[in-house]
Design a protein that fits this description.
It is built from six helices and four strands, in the order αβββαααααβ. By secondary structure, the protein is α+β, with helices and mostly antiparallel strands. The chain has one domain: Sufe protein. Chain: A (Alpha-Beta Complex). It has a four-stranded mixed sheet, covered by helices on one side. It is globular and about 40 Å long. The chain binds FE2/S2 (inorganic) cluster (FES).
Length: about 130
């Protein structure tokens, strides 16, 4: 049983849709199921503070709810704070215990956001997949 909050974010995703002129735009998939999430990020003039985040995606309740919650959490954060996040932050955010399979669903949005930030900083990123 998922918590009510996860179902709510799945059924009524926050910040769903594309941003018109994003500073960061990146897509990734969970290769186990083919589900995808694309994240869009708009930065403040300092090129570091996240002003707006949105996403589009196709997938299970956990992956989509995680993207929805993360889109709210990231607003106001710095790019380095995004890069420092780990899977425990996502599990805490979701508030449920997850099997290893489900953890791949949960961290997809985080991985997409982190790889998008890395690309923005000029780092090489191969195709984004949850591992
Ligand atoms: Fe595909 Fe969860 S089953 S991301």
């Amino acid at each position: 049983m998922y918590r009510q909050q996860i179902l709510d974010h799945y059924k009524n995703p926050r910040n769903y849709g594309e941003l018109e002129d994003p500073d960061i735009e990146h897509v990734g998939e969970n290769p186990m199921c083919g589900d995808t999430i694309k994240m869009f990020v708009e930065l403040a003039d300092d090129d570091d503070t996240i002003e707006r985040v949105s996403f589009i995606g196709d997938g299970c309740a956990i992956s989509q709810a995680s993207a929805s919650m993360l889109s709210g959490e990231l607003r106001g954060e710095s790019l380095s704070a995004v890069q420092e996040m780990d899977r425990d932050d996502i599990i805490d955010m979701l508030g449920v215990d997850l099997s290893p399979m489900r953890i791949k669903c949960a961290v997809l949005a985080e991985k997409v956001a982190q790889d998008g930030v890395a690309i923005h900083k000029g780092e090489d990123v191969e195709v984004t997949k949850t591992e």
